[in-house]
Amino acid sequence: MTDGEEYTLADEIVARARIHAREVVDEYELAVDLGALEWDVSPRARRRAGACRWHADREVATIVLARKAYEAYEWPAFAEIVRHELVHAWEFQRFGESGHGSRFRERAAALEAPRHCDAFAEPRYVLRCLTHSCDWQAERHRASKPVKSPDQYRCGACNGALEVEHAVSGRTWTTASGYGGAKAALGDEW
Ligand SMILES: [Zn+2]
Ligand SMILES: [Zn+2]
C-alpha cells in the first residue's frame, strides 16, 4: 500500500460487495458459501470489471473487482458485476468448475446479472478535444457532467473546446442541447 486513499477505496469496495453478497444469498437463495469466499480489488485492471478465481487445493473462490469499474459505474451496475462473479463462485464451490454455459446463464438471469463479464471494455462515451493538433481524449461509462454539457468544460491538455461521441451510434455533440437532441433522436437505441 503506497497511498492511504487507495487503501480506503479498496476497503469500501470490498465492504459494499460483501454486504451485497449477503443480500444475494438471502434474497435469491444462491447457495454461495460466503465463508469460503475471498475478495480482492485490482487497482489496475481496465478490461474486466470483475473476475473469479478458484483455488481447488483450499476450495476457496476469490472474487477480484476492478477499482476503475467501481469509479466508472453507478452502484446498481457495479452490483450486477458482483452478482455475475458470485454465480462463478457458486459454480466453482459446487461443481469445481465454471464458465458461461447454460447453467451459468440460468443462474445469472435469475439474479438479474449480465451473462458476460467483459462489458467494461466498451465505453459508452468518448470525450475528445476539437483542437486540430491535440489528440487528448477520455472514455466515460456514464453521462457525467462533461458528457452532458461539454461546452462547460475545456481540454485538460490544451484548454481547447470538447466534443462528445456516443460510442455505439457514432453521434457527436458539443453542447448541452446537442446532448439532449442526440438522446431524443436515438430513443431506445441510446
Ligand atoms: Zn464471467
Ligand atoms: Zn486539447
TrEMBL record:
One of its GO terms (biological process) is response to stress. InterPro entries: SprT-like_domain. Residues 22-165 form the SprT-like domain. This is SprT-like domain-containing protein. It comes from Natrinema zhouii.
